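User: Predict structure, ligand adenosine-5'-diphosphate.
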Amino acid sequence: MALGEFDLIGKYFTRPARRAVLGVGDDCALIAPNPGQQLAVSCDMLVEGRHFLPTVAPQRLGHKALAVNLSDLAACGARPLAFTLALAMPRVDEPFLAGLAQGLFALADAHEIELIGGDTTAGPLNLCITVFGEVPPGQALRRDGARPGDALWVSHPVGGGLGDARLALEVFRGRVALPGDAFDTVRRAMECPQPRVVLGLALRGLATAAIDLSDGLAGDLGHVLARSGVGARLVADALPASPVLAAQPLALRRECLLAGGDDYELLFTAPAGAQAAVQAAAAQAGVAVSCIGRIEAEPGLRVVDAEGRALADAPAGFDHFRD
Ligand code: ADP
Ligand code: MG
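Assistant: Predicted complex:
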């Protein structure tokens, strides 16, 4: 007989509370942020066919559902504390649940956070996680702090770049063909993003504004510019690309770099003189950062090539209700 709702919560999603005052099993969970800290709260939903393909391994789905939420805490410079999971699935599939829980808890353990509650229901496959973090008052990284003259930075894997997740999606769509090992690399970027939590913490007091890249660089940068009331000059040729993406034709490369979603890197601004401090923060976090442009007073986004010539038809970001 298939497992019931409460048995499956007990078997796959209940572990002893360590840091939480009260974890899974009551009407509310109780968590105690450290004294004087503010709570940072964020929620991200993953819908099958929209945010992930049915072909994704359950472990990777569990990882990604939590990773995209931790990425939001990273973008705010918040330290993760705990999370809840709301899960809808068409039927009880134990191998799926076991894999999902494995991927989810592996990433949770890596960040020393715990699952404190949630909701479980039958329905189309859908995962919604809410993360809770903490940040000292006044120290959260926000979208509205970019100032003219600031340098524009983006994080990326050491030896890698942006846009690989989008390239993988184009392979799944049949638009691009890649050799097996190259496909594995970009597929991993799409399915196993690494949230830049340590970098976010290291950028407190240093970055003037930050956002995580989920819907494409150009669109996400647009949010920072709008909230900050500034513009930017972005050097397209300065955008970091992995060897696999760098081998693609220019138009596809630019599309993946500028408009590809699912990067989960941090885009941030910092005073022009803070270059050494930014590099030190990245080294501390074990990631690479590249300076990709600068903030200007004139509103709007100007995408230029290495010679400073404007790119006429720079690709835009992703909008769930338009694209
Ligand atoms: P209620 O009906 O009081 O809202 P539920 O019966 O839905 O509570 O859930 C029972 C307990 O199991 C609660 O503590 C809830 O937070 C927890 N829970 C439910 N689903 C999950 C899940 N997917 N992961 C973790 N905890 C869960
Ligand atoms: Mg209840």
